[in-house]
Design goal:
By secondary structure, this protein is an alpha/beta fold. It has a single domain, classed as Metal-dependent hydrolases (TIM Barrel, Alpha-Beta Barrel). Helix content is 36%, strand content 14%. The chain has a six-stranded parallel β-sheet. β1, α1 and β2 form a beta-alpha-beta unit. α1 packs across α2. The longest helix is centred in the N-terminal third of the chain and has 21 residues.
Length: 287
């Protein structure tokens, strides 16, 4: 096993994946970002998009799934997003920012539960063969959650549950999430949950779900208003000492790459109290 150096927003990498002098160039994949301008509240303009993408690239991200909110069925939004992502791609090329963008959406559960499978497939991450990011509600639990996940999974889609750590029911017990995973979902923890905006209970639940082995992917959930969340660096720093180095690679590279190829992500964890890396890290301090 190689050595990982995780400091705030610095490059890291295991030696098994190719090295350079002083470290290894990462090829992280961010499967949840609001980098596209003007489609939701995530980014105001294309200049900010370039800055966000540059920050991600400098932190070792090579691919970003752009996932604007999709709250109701909106054909115009789908078409507009296709135009906007091409505009951002051109801007990144002109600015010399080497990040590949893939279009997807963060889909509201009510849309996922009510829209036909063929239409939902249009909301999946581009080129993934059906990975569709579904927003877990912050409070409450819709009875159709498990049924919807099973319906999507049986039809060949891969439901990716975004930031389950923020849900008040999951914060009390992870049983609801476990049932969703058994129905075919994949859980995605997000860096925005460590920003302080969602409270300490959300932060603690993020780490708890990681340690219990329920999270298969971690992503930034980048919004322009939270500049520290433009990259996965702060999240990696917070996980240092809690998760073995090779599993950080699985969460940020291996599993996202499998997801984008249409394959099932690998399990990560759980971690019991006897392992040497658990308990070394603490929740990040407030500024």
């Amino acid at each position: 096993m190689g050595i990982v150096c995780l400091t705030h927003c610095r490059r890291y990498r295991l030696s098994t994946l190719g090295s350079f002098e002083g470290g290894i160039v990462p090829r992280m994949i961010d499967t949840h970002s609001h980098l596209l301008p003007g489609l939701d509240h995530g980014c105001p303009d294309i200049e900010t998009s370039v800055r966000m993408a540059r920050a991600a690239a400098e932190a070792g991200v090579r691919t970003v799934a752009c996932t604007p909110h999709f709250l109701v069925w909106d054909q115009a939004l789908i078409e507009r997003a296709g135009v906007v992502i091409d505009e951002v791609r051109e801007a990144l090329t002109a600015a010399g920012v080497e990040v590949t963008l893939r279009l997807g959406f963060e889909v509201d559960l009510t849309v996922a539960a009510s829209v036909d499978i063929e239409s939902l497939g249009r909301l999946a991450i581009e080129g993934s063969g059906g990975a569709i990011v579904i927003e877990v509600p912050y409070s409450g639990w819709l009875p159709v959650m498990e049924e919807t996940i099973f319906r999507l999974s049986a039809a060949g889609l891969t439901p990716v549950l975004a930031h389950p750590e923020r849900n008040d029911r999951i914060q009390k017990s992870s049983d609801l999430l476990v049932r969703c995973l058994r129905a075919g979902a994949v859980a995605q923890g997000t860096g925005g949950s460590l920003s302080g905006m969602f409270g300490r209970v959300t932060e603690k639940t993020f780490f708890k779900l990681i340690e219990e082995g329920h999270i298969s992917l971690i992503a930034s959930d980048a919004h322009s208003v939270m500049t520290e969340g433009w990259t996965m660096g702060p999240m990696l720093t917070a996980l240092e000492g809690r998760v073995p180095p090779e599993d950080l690679v699985t969460l940020t590279e291996t599993n996202p790459a499998l997801l984008l190829k249409g394959e099932r992500p690998q399990p990560v964890g759980p971690y019991d109290g006897g392992v040497s890396w658990r308990g070394k890290a603490r929740l990040p301090k407030r500024r």
